[in-house]
From TrEMBL:
<comment type="similarity">
    <text>Belongs to the DegT/DnrJ/EryC1 family.</text>
</comment>
<keyword id="KW-0032">Aminotransferase</keyword>
<dbReference type="GO" id="GO:0030170">
    <property type="term" value="F:pyridoxal phosphate binding"/>
</dbReference>
<dbReference type="GO" id="GO:0008483">
    <property type="term" value="F:transaminase activity"/>
</dbReference>
<dbReference type="GO" id="GO:0000271">
    <property type="term" value="P:polysaccharide biosynthetic process"/>
</dbReference>
<dbReference type="InterPro" id="IPR015421">
    <property type="entry name" value="PyrdxlP-dep_Trfase_major"/>
</dbReference>
<protein>
    <submittedName>
        <fullName>DegT/DnrJ/EryC1/StrS family aminotransferase</fullName>
    </submittedName>
</protein>
<keyword id="KW-0663">Pyridoxal phosphate</keyword>
<dbReference type="Pfam" id="PF01041">
    <property type="entry name" value="DegT_DnrJ_EryC1"/>
</dbReference>
<keyword id="KW-0808">Transferase</keyword>
<dbReference type="InterPro" id="IPR015424">
    <property type="entry name" value="PyrdxlP-dep_Trfase"/>
</dbReference>
<dbReference type="InterPro" id="IPR000653">
    <property type="entry name" value="DegT/StrS_aminotransferase"/>
</dbReference>
Length: 383
């Protein structure tokens, strides 16, 4: 079977060496040496002043929202994973949807200002598939109306924009280190901010609301992560350049094979160094997508309809028509992409998709060179 993704597996001996050190120390949780090292390494890599390692990306979102100074409306995208929306509702805010740009599939920055009201407290935007939103336009709106900006950057580890980590943008950025992500800690998430006050609030709420020796001064939760999970992240981190290079190779191979197919790829704004976290394609219709999924299933390939449905159509939020997001959600499909995906598998996948398409006036698929094989770890780049 070819799944949509597989976790990157570092050398077993390297991981077990760290597990052994945890076992000998007997310090398994509560901000032990592995967690502290992981937080320090990620802070250095990204250049963001404050990073907190969290149990998962959803709790990271909830802590980010909890740090807002007051309740009210949060402007957000209908095209994201459900956790983006559920976190807003869970924390007692009112989601206000703004439709997406039909090219980038990110929130349409030109539509945000019209959604601002006197009750708006924040903009929560998703960098879809790891590709940056129009961060400068969003910041200008936020500054004009004194709003906080939170980025759901769950897909973004390794993405650079204008030479800097995408986590540098917004008042708060969160990410996911779930095993489905290109860089993972089995389970996990993280919060980034350059604001010392927000950092202190989120660190406290991650730890039951405890504020130093003063006691439990805030409403908090147990959002900490363990030494075992941090150890996996530290074991994978030296392989990051290899992971990013291989994802780029896979994306280029798909591009080459699907050239002339009529499938659409999301646009990426200039100045982006993508991490190629996913390989999404847009079909001309939902039926064309379903035909491709059926053909792929026949050869034991499992892509993912990601994201579907459009979040504004869920039954537990008031429906507001979002025609672009609703249309895209019916036509977008993420193809398999992971570190050890073979050239032959990409050829099988693309052959099946091309065979499923309704028109025969496309170019024949091109042969692709063998993809680079995982090699020795290189020095990790600054993100």
């Amino acid at each position: 079977m070819i799944p949509v993704t597989r976790p990157f597996m570092p050398p077993e001996s390297s991981y077990l060496e760290r597990i052994g050190s945890i076992y000998r120390a007997g310090h398994w949780t509560n901000n032990g040496p592995q967690v502290q090292e992981f937080e320090q390494r990620i802070t250095t890599l990204t250049g963001v002043r404050h990073f907190h390692y969290i149990a998962n990306g959803t709790i990271a979102l909830q802590l980010a929202l909890k740090a807002l100074p007051r309740q009210g409306e949060v402007i957000t995208t209908p095209f994201s994973f459900v956790a983006t929306l559920s976190s807003i509702v869970w924390e007692g805010f009112t989601p206000v949807f703004v439709d997406i740009d039909p090219d980038t599939l990110n929130i349409d920055a030109d539509r945000i200002e019209a959604a601002v009201t006197e009750r708006t407290v924040a903009i929560l935007a998703t960098h879809v598939y790891g590709n940056p939103c129009d961060v400068h336009a969003i910041k200008a709106i936020a500054d004009r109306y004194d709003l906080k900006v939170i980025y759901d950057a769950a897909h973004c580890f390794g993405t650079l924009y204008q030479g800097r980590s995408i986590f540098q943008h917004g008042d708060i950025s969160i990410t996911s280190f779930h095993a489905t992500k290109l860089f993972h800690t089995i389970e996990g998430g993280g919060i980034f901010t350059n604001d010392a006050e927000l950092s202190a609030i989120m660190r406290s709420t991650r730890e039951f609301g405890q504020v130093g020796q003063a006691g439990y001064m805030l409403t908090g939760i147990n959002g900490k992560n363990s030494e075992v999970h941090a150890a996996m992240g530290l074991t994978i981190l030296p392989w990051l350049d290899d992971i990013l290079e291989r994802r780029a190779d896979i994306a280029r191979a798909y591009d080459q094979r699907l050239a002339g197919s009529g499938l659409q790829r999301p646009a990426v704004i200039p100045g982006t160094r993508s991490n190629h976290a996913y390989y999404p394609v847009l079909f001309t219709s939902e039926q064309a997508l379903l035909d491709a999924v059926t053909r792929l299933a026949e050869i034991d390939v499992t892509p993912r309809r990601y994201f579907a449905p459009s979040l504004n159509t869920l039954p537990w939020v008031p429906h507001a028509p979002m025609p672009v997001a609703e249309d895209v959600a019916t036509r977008v499909l993420c193809l398999p992409s992971y570190h050890d995906l073979e050239t032959e598998s990409i050829e099988r996948i693309t052959d099946a998709i091309l065979e499923s398409l309704p028109h025969s006036d496309r170019h024949p698929p091109a042969a692709i060179p063998a993809l680079c094989r995982p090699g020795l770890a290189r020095q990790t780049m600054r993100l």
